[in-house]
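tool=predict chain=A
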Amino acid sequence: MSAVWAASRAAVKRRRLQTTAIGLVVLCSTTTVLLALSVLAAVAAPFDSAFTRQRGAHVVATFDAARTSDAQLAATARQPGVQAAAGPFGEAVIELPTEWLGRPPGPLTVVGRADPGGPVDRVELRSGHWPATAGEIVVNMPNGGDSANLLGTELTPTGAPPLTVVGFATSMSKSAGAWVTPEQLTALHPTALQMLYRFPTASDDRQIRQAMATVTTGLPADSLTSAQSYLTLKQAFSAQANSYLPFMTVFGMLGLLLSVLIVGNVVSGAVVSGYRHIGVLKALGFTPNQVVAVYLAMVSVPAVAGCVLGALLGTGLARPILGVAFTGIETGTAAIGTPAWVPVVCLLAMPVLVVLAALLPALRAHRLSAAQAITAGSAPRAGRGLRVQRALGGTRLPRSVSLGLGQPFARPARTALSMAAIVLGVTTVTLTIGLTSTMLAAAGTGRSDGGAEVQVAVGSPAEQRTAPKLSDSQTEALLRSLPGARQVTARGLVRVGLVGYTQPVFGDFYGGDDWASQARVVKGRPPTGPDEVVAGPAFLNQHGLRLGDRLTLYLDGRQLPVTIVGEPLAGNAQALTSNWQTLARLVPDPHAGEYHVRLAPGADAKAYIEAVQAADPGLHPSLPAPDGGGPTVAVVGFSTVFTVLLTVVAALGVFNTVLLNIRERRRDLGMLKSIGMTPRQVVAMTVTSAAGLGAVSGLLGIPLGIVAHRLIVDHVEVLVFAESMKNVWHAPHLAGLALAGVVIAVLGALIPARAAARLPIAEVLHNE
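tool=predict ok
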């Protein structure tokens, strides 16, 4: 074994270019596979872990207190199939008439609980303490930033005593918007009772419905007013990550396929190109088994090094990618990171793949005699590809070009692997360009061309800001009259309840000029009537609704049935958009919280802001904050990372193929140079051999990329694209993409081609 290790170490040092190529290919492949596995694994794992830790409720059930009693509900905990239960807890809905803790006015669901623990739904206290006396309240703030400085804030609900915020907490079950002591709840006039249930089997809606049917057996009819399933919360938890799943899955599959192809091609080619060396080892007395061990060790050393570095790089890239995917989760907390098994799998699987790729050609060398091994890899067998090369030689093409175009036919299996790698690379580039074009088209939806936009916030004493001197209609007229104004849109934001759901949602109501564009509707139509709303795909998915369905909004005791008539491009999972007529039916005297003013092209935004401030100190104008890009940045960023990785891997595959061909054809190159072929012609011949493969591969990869793009944009959960956003393929795009395969091939072939041009004639012919 000492001789085997010495020979392997010497081969690694002597073949530095080959060693580097194997290491780089395995590094990029490991990084790509690890990123894909990390995102796929992260979609469900954080919710399941946190849900188990906090003993989340499979169902949060709300019962009408007028139709059932505490004793009847407590008895449901002993029904067959109930694993654990908590409650009954009193539940009340209070109305907060002014903005509170940065949230708009609206309803707040409050539950009376003596402590945050219990067998079901262990509420996680993030700051402060649990309410101990009357007048104290803990608010559910799952994604609040620095909430400690908000402790002590006083809330003044309508028709109820004031409440002081003494803590902030989060519930995996979203069982309430806030909690008070059971004694305090009596003063808030509770109208409902809450029960929390866990069941032994609750993996789908059917099992949950069956369990709830058993639980409610014997209770008065219609006593159950709502039953919130944890499956809806799980979807909400990972909604944004799920939206990235389609293209992450496609990129992951592309990365995995490309990694297997390139690693197999590079490693097996390294062994084949070393047949001469194998013959020399056998002539020196190495046994066939020792020869196989030498080559397995020779390719395993750089592969292991590349695998370790790739695992470290992939783990480092995975954290920011997962951080973007889980930004804005709606419930609970998640420990975002790469699961421990992912790098372990990569560290074990990639070296195994390398060994398997090297084993087959090494076993073939095992059977060869020393003389056969020395001559086996020196050149392509007589006649292979010669017919094609002779046919090309009869054309008017330059000799270097015709020879280059014929070279791939000498090694058809190796050529097929190289073409497959380039095809996948072109597919990835096509997919990325399509996704980028779609996301950029979506980002511009509903935005007027030309003219700056100014946001004018309306001051409120509750926010310790001066109130405006004028009424809403007078304020709107004022904003229109100032120089430069072209359009003025009013906006009102309130929290409204949904009948049948425990959590309120944000209602975004617009009026004035061009208010329909604010909804950015891409499917259906804008809400034109007083009973119409639009809701994003995330809202529809999490509430089990679709276009055309009806739901009922309630606020301050008033209820309003509405119809979902449109879907915007995107939308918060807890937000609806409608018009000013709808708001007027919910609020007798609605007020705008802010105005959006679109200026005429060329108008001075700074001068307009100064004019508004001078006209009314109660109006607070500002330029809108820069758009961070949201999903657009995430999708384009993910796609770019994978495209760079896969393009590099594909180019390395071409690099390796060309390098092997040059090593096999050293004698031919020496003969060609001896009869007058110049170094420039050698470069042209070598690059042409790769460019031809790239051109054909590009034509094959473009349709695959277009199909993959269509599959992805049709299955993104939190975005809905208009047909015009999906049809992004035009003649200039396709013409440029047709060259992508050539570019990848030329990038991979250029360095070996220059090396071939520098081969000394005398040394090559002497060695052969």
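Residues 482 and 641 are 47 Å apart (CA to CA). The chain has 26 helices and 20 strands.
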